[in-house]
Amino acid sequence: MGLKVYADRLSQPSRAVIIFCKMNRIDFEEVKIDLSKGQHKTPEFAKINPLKQVPAIVDGRFKLFESHAILRYIACSFPSVSDHWYPNDLTTRAKVDSILDWHHLNLRRGSMTYVFNSALAPAFGLPLNKQAAEEGKKLLISSLSKIESLWLKGDSWFLLGNSQPSIADLSLVCELMQLELVDNNEREEIFEQHQKIRNWMENVKRATHPHFLEVHGIIFKLKALFESRRNKASPKL
Predict the structure, then answer these.
(1) Using an 8 Å Cβ cutoff, are 210 and 163 in contact?
(2) All residues at 6 or more sequence positions from 2 whose CB lies less than 8 Å from its CB, including other chains
(3) What is the reported pLDDT for 76?
(4) pLDDT at residue 140 tops 90
(5) Is residue 176 within 8 Å of residue 202, measured between CB atoms?
(6) Mean pLDDT, all residues of the chain
(7) pTM over 0.90
(8) Which residues is 57 bridged to in the sheet?
(9) Rounded CA gap, 7 and 32, in Å?
(10) Is the CB of residue 103 less than 8 Å from the CB of residue 113?
(11) For strand 28-32 and strand 3-7, is the pairing parallel, antiparallel, or unpaired?
(12) What is the 3-state secondary structure (H, E, C) of the chain?
């Protein structure tokens, strides 16, 4: 039995795991779990991940959830994975780990709260929440500043001044791609003071071409749908 990746491409961490597997030529089966249909809440999926979240993997008899743990496991288990993704050097690896640990309660929390409450909630049958969106936006902007000041110093192409991406680069940029779903003007307002972030995102996209854009196809389709709805809702002049 080969590697199975249980994922919904609408999920930022799911996309990171799928792109990582594709980039490293890992033979895997993508098992689609539709979050909007509640497929992650079924008893069958609970046997894979009792927390009922995506992504999750099954590798033979081994089951694992939480995206950062999955990325680390794959990086260490499959010989095709290049060292730059999760370096063997202990000090460099520890620095990558520190970014991943920081990510959950900072960039991910801010971005996810902002995007969900300003754009995505209706897709799950929930109302938009302007106050929650504003709180998420503040944390998001603060997190962007920290990334630039701590890990993108100078003319760094990737985090920690590396010349090639790590799993931290991939995880964080997949998170930021969720901002494609919000209003274009609002997204530009967020990024206008963060040109380093823009450049870094483009570097990660190029380094993971063509898989990055292919896996993010669902986001671009949803973006077009949301833009169409916003245009219809706008008052005619």
Answers:
(1) no
(2) 27, 28, 29, 59
(3) 97
(4) yes
(5) no
(6) 95
(7) yes
(8) 5, 64
(9) 5
(10) no
(11) parallel
(12) CCEEEEECCCCHHHHHHHHHHHHCCCCEEEEECCHHHCHHHCHHHHCCCCCCCCCEEEECCEEEECHHHHHHHHHHHCCCCCHHHCCCCHHHHHHHHHHHHHHHHHHHHHHHHHHHHHHHHHHHCCCCCHHHHHHHHHHHHHHHHHHHHHCCCCCCCCHHHCCCCCHHHHHHHHHHHHHHHCCHHHHHHHHCCCHHHHHHHHHHHHHCCCHHHHHCHHHHHHHHHHHHHHHHHCCCC
Joined together, the tokens standing for residue 89 give 């050097």
Contact 118, 138 (CB under 8 A): no
Task: Give percent of the chain above pLDDT 70.
Answer: 98
In this predicted structure, which of 20-29, 118-127, 158-167 has the lowest mean pLDDT? 118-127
Report residue 198 as tokens: 């823009």
Res 154: pLDDT: 86
* 131's tokens: 């106050």
Return d(Cα 202, Cα 41) in angstroms, integer. 35
What pLDDT sits at residue 237?
43
Q: Please report, to the nearest 10 degrees, the dihedral formed by the alpha carbons of residues 134, 55, 145, 167 taken in order.
A: -170
Contact call for residues 190 and 229 (beta carbons, < 8 A): no
